[in-house]
């Protein structure tokens, strides 16, 4: 009789396990993700550029109200990543545009993969020391279905003013066990995401892209001639125009005639603070003060952007006056224009 009891218990256990295996096998999840296109990026502005993308998850075949386990492993991407801390990722290659994908709107939690599972799905041992997985443990509905839309936060980082113009991209594919995969592992709850044996896997291909466009910024210092009395000799002074343009971008710098009535680009005028009296002055692009700096093609100062500030010296001169001007303060406003 003891043997019979044991046989019955073994048969009962086998019978109870069959529905459990069937429920796991029936669970199927699919995932899609929108491309993350940063559009036109003017790196010379030296500002972060942020966008969002959406991961859509659809699961069917679960038991009613069953809890699921979803592990979203985002690998390096075809452009690669920094191997120390997965920050930044790159578009094109390690010399390309730097960006990353985050799982939070504060851009503090990098979205990556987890340890041994990441090393498998992403075919790269660097993940063995990183747990950057986005893990979810949601419940299916009464029909055994689950759908969700998850927001991904992308950022192209500031501080890349020297990046050349052009198109940049990094792709995430469905290729199994590759550095460019976006692997979505799933099963019933709640195994750890660093395991692979009990998970099924699907993929959500996407492309991250940006177009670096040309741009320039400019700033200028005041041209201060100081204090003089009779103006019976030339009074010289210098100032600087600082131009920052996209690396490799050709540009031209023009100076307007100023705001004082009667001034020209060859002889500008400073106006008295409280009368109509004026004092003439000139602006040159060379230290010998022979090359007039105006606003025509022949008088512009030309340069090529480096991604960093390029300083152009303005050489100013108040020529000697045969008649001493009225005492007081004189000023004029000149506009600097960058053409590229």
Give me a quick take on this structure:
The chain has helices spanning about 1-25, 115-120, and strands spanning about 30-35, 35-40, 50-60, 70-75, 90, 100, 135, 145-155, 165-170, 180-190, 200-205, 205-210, 215-220, 235-245, 250-255, 270, 280-285, 300-305, 310-320, 330, 335-340. It starts with a helix and ends with a strand.
Please write out the topology:
Blueprint: H1 2-26, E1 28-33, E2 36-41, E3 49-60, E4 68-74, E5 89-90, E6 98-102, H2 115-121, E7 134-136, E8 146-156, E9 166-172, E10 182-188, E11 200-203, E12 206-212, E13 216-220, E14 235-245, E15 250-255, E16 268-272, E17 278-284, E18 301-304, E19 309-318, E20 330-331, E21 336-339
Parallel strand pairs: 2-12
Antiparallel strand pairs: 1-3, 3-8, 4-7, 4-10, 5-6, 6-8, 9-12, 10-11, 13-14, 14-19, 15-18, 15-21, 16-17, 16-20, 17-19
Could you characterize what this model shows?
The protein is mainly beta. It folds into 2 domains: 23-212, Fimbrial-type adhesion domain (Immunoglobulin-like, Sandwich); 216-339, Fimbrial-type adhesion domain (Immunoglobulin-like, Sandwich). It is 9% helix and 39% strand. The chain has helices at 2-26, 115-121, and strands spanning 28-33, 36-41, 49-60, 68-74, 89-90, 98-102, 134-136, 146-156, 166-172, 182-188, 200-203, 206-212, 216-220, 235-245, 250-255, 268-272, 278-284, 301-304, 309-318, 330-331, 336-339. The strands form 5 sheets. It has a 6-stranded antiparallel sheet with strand order 13-14-19-17-16-20, with no helix packed on it. Strands 1-3-8-6-5 form a 5-stranded antiparallel sheet, with no helix packed on it. The chain is rod-shaped. 31% of the residues are buried.
């Amino acid at each position: 009789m003891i043997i019979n009891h044991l046989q019955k218990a073994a048969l009962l256990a086998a019978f109870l396990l069959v529905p459990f295996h069937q429920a796991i096998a029936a669970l199927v999840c699919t995932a899609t993700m929108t491309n993350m296109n940063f559009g036109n990026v003017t790196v010379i502005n030296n500002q972060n550029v942020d966008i969002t993308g959406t991961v859509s998850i659809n699961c069917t075949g679960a038991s009613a109200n069953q809890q699921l386990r979803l592990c979203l492993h985002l690998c390096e991407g075809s452009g690669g990543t920094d191997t120390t801390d997965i920050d930044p990722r790159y578009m094109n290659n390690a010399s390309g545009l730097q960006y990353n994908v985050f799982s939070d709107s504060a851009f503090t939690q990098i979205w990556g993969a987890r340890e041994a599972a990441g090393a498998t799905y992403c075919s790269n041992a660097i993940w063995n020391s990183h747990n950057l997985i986005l893990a979810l443990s949601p419940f299916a509905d009464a029909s055994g279905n689950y759908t969700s839309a998850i927001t991904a936060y992308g950022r192209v980082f500031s501080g890349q003013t020297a990046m050349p113009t052009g198109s940049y991209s990094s792709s995430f594919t469905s290729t199994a066990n590759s550095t460019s995969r976006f692997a979505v592992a799933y099963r019933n709850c709640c195994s750890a995401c660093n395991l692979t044996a009990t998970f099924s896997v699907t993929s959500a291909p996407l492309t991250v892209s940006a177009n670096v466009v040309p741009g320039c910024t400019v700033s200028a210092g005041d041209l201060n001639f100081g204090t003089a009395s009779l103006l019976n000799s030339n009074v010289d002074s210098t100032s600087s125009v600082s131009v920052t343009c996209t690396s490799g971008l050709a540009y031209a710098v023009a100076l307007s005639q100023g705001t004082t009535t009667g001034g020209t680009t060859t002889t500008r005028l400073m106006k008295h603070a409280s009368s109509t009296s004026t004092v003439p002055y000139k602006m040159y692009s060379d230290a010998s003060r022979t090359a007039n700096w105006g606003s025509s093609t022949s008088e512009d100062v030309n340069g090529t952007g480096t991604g960093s500030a390029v300083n152009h010296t303005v050489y100013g001169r108040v020529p000697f006056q045969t008649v001493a001007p009225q005492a007081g303060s004189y000023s004029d406003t000149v506009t600097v224009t960058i053409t590229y």
